[in-house]
Here is the input.
Amino acid sequence: MNDQLDDQRLVMQVLGETAVEPPADDAFVNGVMRRVAYQRTAAAIARTAPLILACAALATLLPLVTPLAAWIASAPDVLETMLLTVPAAGFTVATVAGSLVLVHVATE
Amino acid sequence: MGDTPIGDAIEATLVRLAQADDSRAFDELIRRRQGRIRALLRRLSADTSLGDDLAQETFVQAWRHLGRLRDPAGFGAWLRRIAINVWLQYARRIRLDVDAQQDVEAVRAPDVFHDHRLDVEAALAALRPIERLCVLLALSEGMTHAEIVATTSLPLGTVKSHIARGTTRLRRYLAPDMEKRR
Here is the structure.
């Protein structure tokens, strides 16, 4: 038992004497920060993905909705025109907002 | 923090700043802690570049989970636990025998030694990975058996026997040098 403790004490001493801590290294720190930045971007994309998908879907539908709204707008019924053009304007705003989010995430 | 330069701030302050998403504070935490974490992982991996890669992964995981750290003063011990888990995950991924509990005697003895520090590194590298882990945590990091059990999830008896066997092997590999110290 004493021999075992003696061995442990000696090994501890040897390990302590020979331990080498590498000096602070910019390449190492920059490497970590770069990996952190990738993770941040990935997390931001994951957070905004539902909005981006919704905007993409709206952007796809918009070319169909806009001519329809224009056709209704030519009709005399103003209320009906409003009911269709206001959502179309909303779609446009959402698409622009989504695009801005995409650009922001891509350039972060 | 006022006008105190970030390099002069105490670690707990840096941790709080980093938790508030201050990347300069996290950068400084890496600078202060990288030496110990890299040294530990280099020895655990018995490979300098692999150890550095795992050390980078340790800091990335620390950044991801920093919000969960309740006691900023315990950052060092918390970071070391992450480093050990990063190494264990790596070891399990490449199927090192970290979970094996049977004794394996077929361990290669190190070649002829020339330099004291390299002797020790070679002797450590010749241990089974799980023995190396237990020996380093107990005898180099000064962790108690209970702390090693809590960090590695290995049974207490396994930890004790790995430390004993690993110490005996190191003692044997380094016999000439250690005899002089008795």
The two ends of chain B are 51 Å apart (CA to CA). DSSP finds nine helices and no strands in chain B.
